[in-house]
Design brief:
Number of helices of chain B: 19
Strand content of chain A: under 5%
Radius of gyration of chain B: 25 Å
Strand order of the largest sheet of chain B: 1-2
Structural class of chain A: mainly alpha
Shape of chain B: globular
Chains: A mainly alpha (about 220), B mainly alpha (about 675), C alpha+beta (about 300)
Distance between the termini of chain A: 65 Å
Oligomer: heterotrimer
CATH architecture of chain A: Up-down Bundle
CATH superfamily of chain A: Cytochrome c oxidase, subunit III, four-helix bundle
Order of helices and strands of chain A: HHHHHHH
Number of strands of chain A: 0
Radius of gyration of chain A: 24 Å
CATH superfamily of one domain in chain B: Cytochrome c oxidase-like, subunit I domain
Distance between the termini of chain B: 76 Å
Number of domains of chain A: 1
Order of helices and strands of chain B: HHHHHHHHHHHHHHHHEHHEH
Number of strands of chain B: 2
């Protein structure tokens, strides 16, 4: 500590407004971060904002859950068997995406493509199962326009479904990029974002499964 | 084929919007023809439309904001004129039209004037202050801008094709539901705000990443200039609040388009939920605007007081304090809904707590001036105007935060006066100060001081004459959004207010004259050193206008006031720091992605508003294809060779060396 | 209730402030600062209290801003330039504590005021309140007097000196019931019942309207209330003439109309208000035709001034 710093330290013992040199490390003075960190961080922020959208939908669903307007209640319409299969498909999809990550790390084109195809197929199975659930409800006259509760339910679960569908579209372009461009660093960064996205959808699904379906059938 | 769109959508029976819309369209077309005829289009396309340079995007944002500010101001003039004429009479605007005017005024001013101006200044300044070459995601930045422009375009298209919302700037259901607003007005609102909201969210992501992950070496968190801190706080708020807006508007959209029941009067819908959700975005939105404004004042007051900002850490703490507390206050927008004493009191107190953070800032600016050497330039005048005006706006704000007071003042003209007091006195003054302050950096010449000061005095006086009478009529019981009235006590005050807006028009005229005069005198007003105000942060360490790479070599930051520190050392040594080692610079390549993507977004928005489903599908496929094409490119960057960097930097160093020797000899 | 009891005699500083800070015209009828009942008095005293508390720090701050700016102007050679004066622990302590203490104080006012003046709270009176049910339609108000078995549109007559208990709902969009001279306003919302307790002490005709924008006919949602002595009120109630207010009559009210002249109903279906509030009746119809789809041009062209 220099003499000048010592004097300021005496004058300002609690360092409340002190603007002198930072003596401690870890204050972010290391200059710009690497591209991988920047891209990953930015996408992570995007996911956080997406979580807020889901939080709004969860909150609305909670508010509207009792507003059945003479229509069916949650326990009348949920079929846990089908939902269990949906969950299994989505979790499997996420696991297979994890395998794809390993394959990408090894720069193995065949394994990568195979794992991604499997990821896509399980994701597609999830979407089909969910669509059949929605179609069945709709056929019984329990569509989203029936009551505020069903509005909330279809929007929350449907929003997740739309995300998964968008993920499948992204998956297709991801596979095409690996195939056509190989394992370039920028494509690797995109894949990092993609896998975060898929795992994030899992996390949201876990919340939907427990808060909407499990709690709903018990009430 | 064209959904709901037919010839009856053109308001042939309403001359005012028809003529206004036609004039705007002709002006726009004339501009385009002129640009193409002059052969400027390639330049415009290469340097601006497809540019991913944060400086150019920032300038385009500011331009968009200023245009929309004029549009919103015209709406304001129409409203003041209507209320001045509508005593025991119908005025000149029928309710169907007047209701659109005030809805458009609010929407445009907050979302398409203030937001682009704030984000534009952030775009231009933040990377320069952080001492880096661009934002984290340059192409995404361009996408953000063009999506915002799409929103602004859609709002203005509603002038000529169809109508705008007649619900107020926040479309409260059930009024905004299909049953009560069957026209396309609310749909215009929904898609315009939704599309531009996505742009804003992307900006938030971009700038939080930039500020937290990309700073010059040595720029620790507590060495960041105050404006960067406030920009960070503002973008954190964007990140947390705009998704709420997206979700809320999506719900209202589902209600209107697919017959869902989020907020309807039927089947268990809950309109109160909309108020909670929209204000969970709406209140932080106010701080999204005002925090960067506080940052601008901090920079201006410190620079023109020739002193560092007083109590810097305290200011950082106050900023983050406001940032967090602003999320806990939304309920004060509907105390009169009858939530009960406990809830009302809790939100009343949380609201007034924000005044602590603001008060701290106010005192710190005060002590920044204490012991300073104050130069009364135009930006400084705006800042002083702000400090004296904003405390009144804050006072009336805290007054409205007291629930029993709000029971009398809610939705009154008093409230209207209050939020104009804080938004104009807080945000608009800051934006004008900021534009004036950073103009030389952006264009290489200063703005004319005489016209600037005239604009300030007209603006300040006009502001008080317009809005103080509104406090009075508010206390006399007048509620907002009245197309006509028959209460004699209100009439004289509304006349005074109309005179006020005439004075404000004078201010606007001075401001425009200032830009023209300064452009004509740009050679006399040239800023050769890149540091016209004796500035303290890094944006002044590079040339005006800055080269495309901002800094030839990333600066090494050793002090909280990075550039002041460099200058001090240079003065002591009577010479600039040593010749740096130049290296080639990699810069992102321009990309039309943002523009093309916004083009398709416009198609999608327009198609959805008018239920033209095939066009919507075309737009969606086009937007997806744009991103695939963008993802497919192989060379995202280009390299500026070291010699080129050196050549550009040498000219700048020479000007500074001359200025330095000049300063030393005198 | 402290605020209401205090309202009998205003303190001297409050009067001075009223005279000083605000133009004289503010004390005229229908100003929120010239209330005619205990609730309005309670609300307006809180406004003045809060104003005094805040002016106590705002005025010195404004003066200091101008004084510092003037004294430390660059051309003033007598002002001492202290470029290194950038932090002082003592000043920071004061700077944080002044607003904090003010808000702490004001927080007390807020907490007490919010509870005492909660619109749902009955007034401390021995008299039994007069029950009034108010329903907002597009664009008129319906007032039902269940005890008297009468109802009126756009006309509110109340007795002085007796507490009034309003139950308020809306048959269509949001509105707010507001009489500036009486005191607090409250929202009228479809599917919900809000309550408002008021009392009027001075006979007269007052300004009453909707204080929440509800569409094109909003400026004409006027119901200028008349306060009369209790015996006159009884006479008025007994003498009301009109059709019976039943579901069919409400069906007619559900159609949009502007600037409706006041009229009354004699005989009221007692379940009507609760049926509207519980959404058992269909909601207001909304516009019937218009620009670009069924919408903009209204079938009931009133418009213009009353």
């Amino acid at each position: 500590m220099s003499a000048a710093e010592f004097t300021t330290a005496i004058a300002d013992p609690y360092r409340l407004g002190h603007r002198g040199p930072n003596l401690a490390r870890g204050h972010g003075g290391g200059g710009p971060a690497t591209k991988r960190v920047i891209v990953g961080y930015g996408f992570w922020l995007f996911l956080l904002s997406d979580i807020i959208i889901f939080a709004c939908l969860f909150a609305t669903y909670a508010v509207l859950a009792d507003a059945t307007a003479g229509g069916p209640k949650a326990r009348d319409i949920f079929e846990l068997d089908r939902v269990a299969w949906e969950t299994a498909c989505l979790l499997a999809s996420s696991f297979l995406c994890g395998l794809a990550t390993i394959a990408v790390a090894q720069r193995n084109q065949i394994l990568t493509q195979a794992a991604l195809v499997a990821t896509g197929l399980t994701g597609l199975a999830f979407i089909l199962l969910e669509s059949s659930e929605f179609a069945a409800l709709h056929a019984q006259g329990f569509g989203p326009t029936r009551s505020a509760f069903l509005t909330g339910f279809f929007t929350l679960v449907g929003c997740h479904g739309v995300h998964v569908t968008a993920g499948l579209l992204w998956l297709g372009t991801m596979m095409a990029q690996f195939y056509a461009k190989g394992f370039r660093p920028d494509i690797g960064r995109r894949f990092l974002c993609f896998s975060m996205f898929l795992h994030f959808l899992d996390v949201v699904w876990v919340a939907i499964f427990s808060l909407v379906y499990l709690v709903g059938t018990r009430l | 084929m064209f959904g709901k769109l037919g010839w009856d959508a053109i308001p042939l029976d309403q001359p005012i919007p028809l003529i206004a819309g036609a004039v705007v369209m002709l002006l726009g077309l004339g501009m385009i023809v002129w640009v193409i005829a002059k052969g400027w289009f390639p330049y415009l396309w290469k340097e601006w439309i497809t540019s991913v340079d944060h400086k150019h995007i920032g300038i385009m944002y500011v331009l968009l904001g200023l245009l929309m500010l004029v549009r919103g101001f015209i709406d304001a003039i129409m409203m003041r004129a209507q209320q001045a004429m509508a005593f025991h009479a119908g005025g000149y605007l029928p309710p169907e039209h007047y209701d659109q005017v005030f809805s458009a005024h609010g929407t445009i001013m907050v979302l398409f004037a203030a937001m682009p101006l704030v984000i534009g200044i952030m775009n231009f300044v933040v990377p320069l202050q952080l001492g880096v070459r661009d934002v984290a995601f340059p192409t995404l930045n361009s996408v953000s801008f063009w999506l915002t422009a799409t929103g602004a375009l859609l709002v203005n298209v509603s002038l000529l094709i169809g109508e705008f919302a007649r619900t107020g700037w926040l479309p409260y259901p059930p009024l905004s539901e299909l049953r009560y607003s069957p026209g396309v007005g609310v749909d215009y609102y929904l898609w315009a705000v939704q599309i531009s909201g996505v742009g804003t969210l992307l900006t938030g992501i971009n700038f939080v990443t930039t500020i937290l992950k990309i700073r010059a070496p040595g720029m620790t968190y507590l060495r960041m200039p105050m404006f960067c801190w406030t920009a960070l706080a503002s973008c954190l708020l964007i990140l947390a609040a705009f998704p709420v807006l997206t979700a809320t508007l999506a719900m209202l959209t589902l209600d209107r388009y697919l017959g869902f029941h989020f907020f309807t009067n039927e089947a268990g819908g809950n309109a109160m939920m909309f108020m909670n959700l929209i204000w969970a975005w709406g209140h932080p939105e106010v701080y999204i605007l005002v925090l960067p404004a506080f940052g601008i004042y901090s920079e201006v007051i410190s620079t023109f007081s020739s002193k560092p900002l007083f109590g810097y850490r305290s200011m950082v703490a106050a900023t983050l304090f406001i940032c967090i507390v602003s999320f806990c206050t939304w309920l004060h927008h509907f105390f009169t809904m009858g939530a009960g004493g406990d809830v009302n009191a809790a939100f009343g107190i949380s609201t007034s707590i924000i005044a602590v953070g603001t008060g701290v800032k106010m005192y710190n600016w005060l002590f920044t001036m204490y012991g300073g050497r104050i130069r009364f330039t135009t930006p400084m005048l705006w800042s002083l105007g702000f400090m004296t005006t904003f405390v009144i706006g804050g006072l009336t704000g805290v007054l409205l935060a007291v629930p029993p007071a709000d029971f009398l003042l809610h939705n009154s003209m008093f409230l209207v006066a209050h939020f104009h007091h804080v938004i104009i006195g807080g945000v608009v003054f800051a934006l004008l100060a900021g534009i004036e302050y950073w103009w030389p950096k952006a264009f290489g010449y200063r703005l004319d001081e005489r016209w600037g000061k005239a604009a300030f005095w007209f603006g300040l006086v006009g502001f008080y004459v317009t809005f103080m009478p509104m406090y009075v009529v508010g206390i006399l019981g007048m509620t907002r959004r009245l197309q006509h009235y028959d209460v004699a006590d209100w009439y004289p005050w509304l006349l005074v207010s109309a005179v006020g807006i005439l004075i404000l028009m004078g201010g606007a005229a001075c401001q425009i004259t200032q830009l023209v005069v300064s452009f004509l005198r740009r050679h006399e007003l040239r800023d050769t050193t890149g540091d016209p105000w004796d500035g303290r942060s890094l944006e002044w360490a590079t040339a005006s206008p800055p080269p495309v790479f901002n800094f030839a070599v990333l600066p090494q930051v050793q002090d909280a006031e990075a550039y002041w520190d460099v200058k001090r050392r240079a003065r002591e040594a009577e010479e600039l720091g040593g010749q740096p080692h130049y290296a080639p610079v990699e810069m992102p390549r321009n990309s039309p992605t943002g523009f093309v993507c916004a083009f398709f977004a416009t198609l999608i928005g327009f198609a959805l508003i008018w239920h033209i489903w095939w066009l919507m599908i075309v737009g969606l496929v086009g937007a997806y294809a744009t991103f695939v094409v963008f993802a497919w490119r192989d060379v995202p960057e280009y390299v500026i060779p070291a010699e080129e960097v050196e050549r550009i930097d040498r000219a700048d160093r020479q000007a500074r060396q001359e200025a330095l020797s000049g300063a030393v000899t005198t | 209730m402290e605020f209401i009891r205090r309202s009998g005699g205003r303190t001297v500083p409050q009067f001075c402030l009223l005279a000083m800070a605000l133009a004289p015209s503010l004390a005229r009828a229908d100003s929120i600062l010239a209330p005619v009942g205990p609730v309005g008095r309670g609300d307006s005293i809180i406004i003045l209290d809060a104003l005094v508390i805040m002016l106590a720090i705002v005025i010195p701050t404004m003066i200091a801003t101008l004084a510092f700016a003037w004294w430390y102007r660059a051309s003033n050679a007598r002002a001492v330039y202290r470029p290194d004066f950038t932090y002082s622990g003592k000043i920071e302590l004061i700077v944080w504590s002044i607003p904090t203490l003010t808000i702490f104080f004001l927080g007390g006012v807020i907490w007490i005021g919010s509870h005492k003046l909660d619109p749902f709270e009955p007034l401390p009176s021995t008299a039994k309140p007069l029950e009034i049910e108010a329903v907002a339609f597009d664009w008129k108000w319906l007032f039902i007097y269940p005890e008297q078995g009468i109802a009126s549109v756009n006309q509110l007559v109340v007795p002085v000196g007796r507490p009034l208990h309003f139950r308020i709902t809306s048959a269509s969009v949001f509105n707010a019931f507001f009489v500036p001279s009486f005191g607090s306003m409250i929202y009228a919302m479809n599917g919900m019942v809000s309550q408002l307790n008021l009392q009027v002490d001075k006979p007269g005709k007052y300004l009453g309207f909707s204080a929440h924008f509800s569409g094109d006919g909003f400026p004409d949602m006027r119901f200028d209330p008349v306060a009369v002595p209790p015996d006159q009120f009884a006479g008025w109630a007994a003498g009301v003439k009109g059709a019976r207010l039943n579901r069919a009559a409400v069906g007619a009210l559900l159609k949009q109309s502007r600037a409706v002249k006041p009229y009354a109903y004699k005989g009221v279906d007692p379940t009507l208000f609760d049926a509207i509030a519980a959404q058992k009746l269909p909601p207001g119809e909304g516009p019937q035709s218009g620009r670009s789809g069924p919408g903009a041009q209204n079938v009931v062209p009133h418009g213009g001034a009353p």
